[in-house]
Amino acid sequence: MKKLLLTAALVAATSPVFAGDVVRMGTEGAYPPYNFINDAGEVDGMERALGDELCRRAELTCEWVTNDWDSIIPNLVSGNYDTIIAGMSVTAERDQVIDFSEEYIPPEPSGYLAMDAGVDVSQAVIAAQAATIQAAFVAAQGWTLVEFATPEETIAAVRNGEADAVLADSSFLEGHANDGLQFLDRKESIGGGVAIGLRESDGELRAKLDAAIQSMKADGSLNKLIVEWEVGSTW
Q1: Considering the entire predicted model, what is its pTM?
Q2: Closest CA relative to residue 101, chosen from 37, 25, 169
Q3: Whole-angstrom Cα distance, residue 4 to residue 38?
Q4: Containing H/E element for 224?
């Protein structure tokens, strides 16, 4: 779904190997309904529910850590947490730096929100969160791109006239299609499905999480979460 981040320094970085039953789950906490901080100050959302259930099935103990999106891969590699579970789409570029679990959400089209339904995106200013697959897509088209650090800032940019439209995952945009913001009649297929990011060295942890994801697919509980949180299509 979202996000493209590749830094040359990561390739040379060394990282600790997962070596225990406690798994630090890294997320952004700012991309509902995938992940967000609730009124109690805790990580919430579809990925919180998913991560807790995966850890239960894999007999692991989850600890939740939040991190800004633009440094979420470097801080995984450097060992600040053990996984990224943050609406991250699988891409070839990311796969050169980190490993991925089995996908837990199928690929989802990205959509546009704008104040004017007649916006021509090829001639418009498009807002996107920095280091995302959406930002990379807009840049590749040669369109005018403005990048922001957080998803909420991209929405605000359209409302205040800094941008004509925002491109992001459709499930995220659904929560903002109000007060004049409306979907354009156009979608983009960008990137692969959403998966958990892991360090290349953590094959044992990946195997445990893959088995748990497969068991949730098999018994229908993963599809139930997808429907409950409205994060995309089911398996």
Answers
A1: 0.90
A2: 25
A3: 26
A4: helix 221-229
